Amino acid sequence: MSDNYRSREERRRAMNDNKPEGKSQGKPKKKKKGGLFRKIVAAVLLIGIIGLIAGVGTFFAMISDAPKVDDSVLKNSFSSKVYANDGKTVVKEIGAQKRTYVQYDEIPQVVKNAFIATEDVRFYKHHGVDFYRIGGALMANFKNGFGAEGGSTITQQVVKNSFLSPKKTVKRKVQEMWLAYQLERKYSKQQILEMYLNKIYFASGEVYGIERAAEKFYGVKSVKDLTLDEAAMLAGLPKAPTTYNPVTNPENATKRRNTVLNLMAKNGFITQAEADKAKQVDVQAHLAKQTESTSKYDVFIDQVIEEVKKKTDADPFSAGLEIYTTLDTNAQDYVDDVMNNKVVNFPNDKFQAGLVVVDNETGGIQAIGGGRNRVSGGLNFATNMRRQPGSTIKPILDYGPAIENLKWSTGQPIKDEEYHYSNGTPIRNFGRNYKGWVSAREALGRSLNIPALKAFQATGADKAKEFATGLGLKLDEEDGEAYSESYSIGGFRTGVTPLQMAGAYSAFANEGMYNAPHTVTKVKFPDGTEIDLTPKSKRAMQDYTAFMMTDMMKSVVNESYGTARAVRTPGLEIAGKTGTSNFSAAEKQRYNIPDAGEKDVWFNGFTPNYTISVWTGYETAKDGYILSANETGMAKNIFKHVITHISEGKPKGSFKQPDSVVERSVEKPTGKDLKRPSGSTPSSLITKEYFVRGTAPTKVSQTFVKKEKEKEEKKEDKKDDKKEKKDNKDVKPKITASYSGGAISVNWSAANAASDTTFTVTMSSPNGSEQLASGAGAGGKTISNPAPGATYSFTVTTNTGESASSSVKVPDSSDQATEDDSTKPEDDGTTDDNQNEDNSNTDQNNGSDQGDDSSTQPDDNQNSNNGSNNGSNNGGNNSGNTDNNNNDSGNANDGNSGNNSNNGGTTTPPADNGGSDSGSQTPQTPATPSTPATPATPQQEPTTEN
Fold first, then answer.
1. Shortest CA distance to 282 belongs to which of 246, 329, 326?
2. Beta bridge partners of 690
3. 3-class DSSP state of 345
4. Nearest-angstrom CA–CA distance, 839 and 805
5. pTM
6. What share of residues in the chain are helix, strand, coil (percent, to 5)?
7. In 3D, which of 171, 525, 117 has the Cα closest to residue 315?
8. Rounded mean pLDDT of 90-94?
9. How far apart are CA 662 and CA 677, in angstroms?
């Protein structure tokens, strides 16, 4: 223990010895910590003071040029001017001429409560700025994205719409808060609410203020007459006047009204039972009939107002703005004439149409056709009406994504066949037939559904969605449902508008660059502030996709199978796509609509300069259906008239092929792979298609090579046959017959005869007609013991159809035995064309009928005969007549000698005749004669002529 103690003491002394003199021996570490803390606190305070001073300075600097709270500005409005696209022509001045001011005491409490519950539930508790609400808005924006929820109070909205520009800057927000505070100091809550309810915008047609809105929508003489459900509906409109308009969008309006009723019940302004009861009222049940007609350019101006409010939060009716637009007055005037039945003949007054004309390069809307017989604030069929697009969606969801992602060519083979969706539901083409292998170009041109679905499946729903989103079509978000395969042929729940489709199609014409369609280019405020509202261009697809899809859509217009041939216009390069949609089975049954009745007919088309989307149909199923040729062709008819008019006097332009695309000749599809044509491919089966550079086929098709070889062989054979026939025409057969020594000698031959020339010789005698010989080469025959006084006629016919004849008369028994009664051949052994034609049908065939056993006998004069015959009637055994009364060995009667077979059988000589011929021979007993011959005169000796 002592050792430890001494060690500790020594340690303390050593430590004390090392300390500087005069220093305290306290706890230095604690002192150091305390000093550092005080320094940190002091620094923080100093920074806070500096920050506060800077903040206050910045605050006052920001509000130093804030406008004064002016009573005249708060209660009065300043009109705004709307300019056409030339930047000089004022097409309209919009302002407060349709505003009815109503005092606070005249506004019923139910209306006040509805607006307060919806817009600013703490209105009576704050002093112009609700920091509690701002905190909640910040949290909502952090969770759900910027803009998810606003923090402005009713007081701030009055200030914003009356004094400030809509620029979303920190300075403007600070000024807004400052002026809201000043406004609260100067005016009561009641006065501020009165200002608000008389200034807010409710609908197109310059519907401003609660009194005017009550009259416009419900036809009431005073706002005091509004019911709970009506007040809730009007309170829900300012957030999005077009989207929640109960006249044109009842479904959205119902949801918005019910939201307001829920907020009123939640915050204690009404009971839940009252809210539920009000929800049961049809949102359109009490609406007044809209009878106020629109004035010139109102359809376009309505779209301008909506854009200004959406993009700037400014009030065009009271802010004194200068609004510069894309309006082409020439185009708009013509479109108005179309809608007013001055250009085309609509089938009836209820038939509707909507169209939008867009400049391809800028996306600027040139003209809008909102519908026929429109009233102010009524449904705009071009911008608000959403319908199923039918086949016009195929370039966007099917073929466009396939080219973009899979680099399909315009000739991509697709088999059009019996098919079904992935869930097993059958899919059919409009014509209920199948085309087999077709190119993507032809499939689109014919508007075939099955190839479209296959293209959609090949790319996938995600890629199709991505492609459509890039063209401004957020289909699943708006429909509230995921992409399904039925989307591939336009099967949406709610559909699209002509405005959306015009914007999407314009990107194909603009080399893949998408410009959101718009009506406003810039806005100038009274204080000189300008805001550029022109949308930024963005690439929606590769240039090869844009060009190849455009070329495919040109086939829709130009090819014989195209569905839009009616829009062809001389001097204009037009591409586009048709589309139709059908009624549901329930609609058909309820309204007695035939199967052929169509609900919607579209045509979306474009030139290098302009895109036009046209929809035609009826507002509701009960109004009618499209059936006649005039109705089904109306969309194309309208397009053709409008595109022709707006293109007059302007450069027509052309669609330029980018370097990323090559054109190649290929064989038309007969299978899943495209191939280059061979030299044997028929020109009718060769087509030119476009390919992404580096993807064109290199293999040469062999389909027609073998066929061409066979064709050449047949051609050569035909050529040889023709030559042989020509050669045979020079063959001139000759036959002579003479009587001498009790027998007739017959000889035949032919000039220029080929080695394979065959002869058929026939004889006519008192006993009838019979064939003497048939075979190749010249020859002769001896007819022994002919009948005295009879005439024998002989005819020789070649296998080429040529023939000759000769005859001889046998002397009767009173004539001298040595008399030679011979005749010359008739016609020198030649025949005319008719004779040749008649004799060509002799008993000869190029094959055996039934003579497998037949044999022939040589004639007695031993003339050469190879025994082969190319035909006989039946090849039966023919034997010469035998004279039973004559035992002379040289008198073997062979009047019918020369047995003939169809298959060129052997020639058999008689047993008693030592004659021979060049054919193969087999000894054979002579056949029994079928007809006895007249005995020859004994004095006559048989003779043989070679």
1. 246
2. 663
3. coil
4. 10
5. 0.64
6. 35, 20, 45
7. 525
8. 89
9. 16
Write down the pLDDT at residue 228: 95
What does pLDDT average to over the chain? 79
Cα 289 to Cα 292, 354, 389, 523, distances in angstroms: 9, 22, 30, 34
Query: Residue 201: CA atoms inside 13 Å, Cβ hemisphere, count?
Result: 28
Question: Closest Cα partner for 810 from 793, 827, 828?
Answer: 793
Token pair 């405020």: residue = 525
DSSP state for residue 676 in the 8-state scheme: B
| DSSP string for 87-103 | SS-EEEEE-STTB----
- Side-chain-side CA neighbours of 523 within 13 Å: the count stands at 24
What are residue 761's DSSP bridge partners?
773, 796
The string of DSSP letters for 694-738 reads T-S--PBP-TTHHHHHHHHHHHHHHHHHHHHHHHHTT-EEEEEEE
Which one, of 378, 372, 404, 635, lies nearest residue 539 by Cα? 404
Instruction: Mark whether 537 is an active-site residue.
Output: no
How far apart, in whole angstroms, are the C-alpha atoms of residue 599 and residue 579?
11
Q: What is the pLDDT of residues 194-217, one digit of tens each?
A: 888 988 888 876 677 898 889 889
Q: In whole angstroms, give the CA distance from residue 335 to residue 329.
A: 10
Taking every pair of Cα atoms in the chain, the longest distance, rounded to a whole number of angstroms, is 193
**Tokens matching residue 315:** 């009030």
* Phi, psi angles (nearest 5°) of residue 199: -105, -25
Q: Catalytic annotation on 442?
A: no
The CA distances from residue 163 to 75, 314, 431, 645, 748, in Å, are 12, 10, 63, 44, 127
Q: How far apart are CA 782 and CA 803, in angstroms?
A: 20
Tokens of 150: 């606003």
Active-site pick, 77, 80, 162, 391: 391
User: Which is more confident, 518 or 825?
Assistant: 518
Distance CA 477, CA 467 (A): 14
Per DSSP, the residues of 522-564 read EEE-TTS-EEE-PPPPEE-S-HHHHHHHHHHHHHHHHSTT-TT
Decide if 732 contacts 750 (C-beta within 8 A): yes
Count of alpha carbons within 13 Å of 239, Cβ hemisphere only? Answer: 22
Q: What is the pLDDT of residue 195?
A: 86
Query: Residue 407 half-sphere exposure, CB side, CA atoms within 13 Å?
Result: 10
Q: Could you say which of 119, 306, 511, 598 is catalytic?
A: 119
Taking the alpha carbons at both ends of the chain, their separation in whole angstroms is 168
Residues 6+ away with beta carbon under 8 Å from 4: none
Within a 13 Å sphere around the CA of 761, how many CA atoms are in the beta-carbon half?
Answer: 34
Query: Cβ–Cβ contacts within 10 Å for residue 182, how many?
Result: 17
CB 634 within 8 A of CB 345: no
Nearest to 233 by CA among 220, 293, 154: 220
CA 799 to CA 760: how far, in whole Å? 8
Q: Which of 509-523, 594-608, 836-850 has the lowest mean pLDDT?
A: 836-850
Tokens of 487: 């989307």
Of the candidates 345, 395, 710, 438, the residue with the CA atom closest to the CA atom of residue 549 = 395
Both tokens assigned to 394? 């195929």
Within 8 A by CB and 6+ apart from 88, the residues are none
- Amino acid at site 525: F
Tokens 């005092």 sit on residue: 103
Cβ neighbours for 448, distance < 8 A, ≥ 6 positions apart? 416, 429, 435, 438
- Mapped onto helix, strand or coil, the DSSP state of residue 770 is strand
Task: Outline where DSSP puts E strands in 766-861.
Answer: 768-776, 779-784, 791-798, 803-809, 825-826
Quick check: 686 and 677 in contact, CB under 8 A?
Answer: yes
Residue 878 confidence (pLDDT): 37
At residue 254, what is the residue type? T
DSSP state of 658: P
| pLDDT, greater one: 894 or 367 | 367
